[in-house]
Each structure stands twice: as C-alpha cells, then as structure tokens.
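Re: the 308-residue chain
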Amino acid sequence: MAERREGSVTSTGASRIVLVTGPSGSGRTTALAALEDLGYETIHNLPLSLVPRLLDGPLDRPLALAVDVRNRDFSAARLIELIDRLTRDPKLKLDLLYLDTQPDVLIRRYSETRRRHPMAPEDAPLEGIRLETDLLVPIRTRADVLIDTSSMTPHDLRAEVARWFDMSHIARLAVSLHSFSYKRGVPRGLDMMFDCRFLNNPYWVPALRGLTGLDPEVAAYVASDPRYGEFIERVTGLLLFLLPAHVAEGKSHLSVGFGCTGGQHRSVAVNEVVTKALADAGWQVSKRHRELERRAIVPPGVKTGSGA
C-alpha cells in the first residue's frame, strides 16, 4: 500500500525506495531518468550486497535503484531476499517497479541498436532474452507496479512512470485490481481481497472450461448465479465509498484482489466488471489477471481508466 509522498518520506515517516528492474532493453534507463526528473535520487546497477549499506545512511530524497542481470552479484534469490528485507523495515516504503516487454519487441530493439545481449554476448539476442526472461520470472510475480513497454515510446514510458510515482500528485489515488488463483497464493501487497469461489464455476461446463473470464460466454455464466448481482453491487458500492476516504487519508495507491480456485474464470469476470464500474466513475484504475499473464493469454499491467 503506497502512502502519501512528502519529500523523501511518506506520511508515515518512512523513506520511499523504488527498485526498478526488468529484462534488458525494456526501458530501465528511461524509467530511471523519469524518476530522476521527478526528484528521486537515482543509482543504476548498484551491487545488491551494497544496498543495505547505502540505506544505513540518511536519505534526503526518495531513492530509485535500477538492478539487472549485469549486476556482479545478481540472482533472483538475492533480489527476493533484498525485497523481503526492505519490506520488513518500518523505516522504508518499498515499491518494486518491473518493466516488461514482449520477446519479439526486444529482438527488434536489439536488432536496431546492434547491441549484444549481456546474458549471451556470443549468441543471437533471442538466446539471451530467453535466459533472462526465465531468470526474472519470480521477480516479475513480486512486482508492485508492472508496466508493459512493448508498444510504448520513451515519452509514453516517462508519462506512465510519472502516473505512478510523481510526488506532486498526492491527491490522485491509483487503484489496481488483481484476479488470482488461491492455489498459487495471494498476490503480495493487497489492501483488500474478495473471494469469488461461491459463484457458479464455469470449469465444470466442458464448453467453457478452456475459456476465460474475458470471454462473454464465461462472463454470462458467472453472472447467471443468483448471488452475482448483489455481490457486484455491494463490492462496487463499498469501493466507491472507501476510495474518497483513502484520498482524504493521503493514500496514493490501493490494491484490491479477487480470487477463485484457478484464477481463470470467476475472479477474472468479476475483476473486469468492477474495474469498468470504477473507471466509469472516474477513478484511475489498472487491472491485472495474474494467472492469465502466466499463460500469456493477456499482456501484463493493462490500464483501464483515467484518474479522478
């Protein structure tokens, strides 16, 4: 949960830290430059082992650190350990920003720049991209903010980074809605969570089993549950009641989860409907379908609304 940004600290007195990572060629340098323009102190590719020592000193400004596979002591396990350590520190407010890009776009970017991939300098870029993507899978699932830069220009990416991390926009509340599978665990950092497993389950209908909550047939089947209408009305009403209160409290981000057994049908359908309702009401909303992203059915970090 993001707190109000005031200088280098949040409204709770915690220093703000943003870790920026993602595959090589996804736009980390552009994102770091955008954060620097927003008033963050930025450091590129600091060895992970030195980060705790850096944070022992005073922080006069919010801090943004870019980390990637070129780091001399980089590993997914070490980065996750660092994330957990910083998250537990009450003096810090950590956000993990993950920049994602489709492999074919990364290949085109490497072809245009004629650069070698850091993980496979002697091979074609595709091999390095594949190795790096596999290495970063557990990091990607831990992201607080995930931005797909595949179709973005540098200007677009700068604007998106500012949308999430501009310290002057403390009155804007960014809402992210997540669908997920309880079997794979609850997403990190949820502020509220709703269980959708009581609704009609399309999995038991052979014609619907291979579809997702994005398909009209599945959405209609879930909506046919007699409890569905009241559930959507109550959840949407609760969120619309709470969002202004969170703005008044100085919060800048609210993360809401919808879970079901497999994260494919009911939670996705409910997420879609609630997201549209909040966007129609004028709130700044983004949505993520975690299990569909894992299966590459949808791109990550889809924006669906613009701010109140």
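Confidence is low (pLDDT under 50) at residues 1-9, 302-308.
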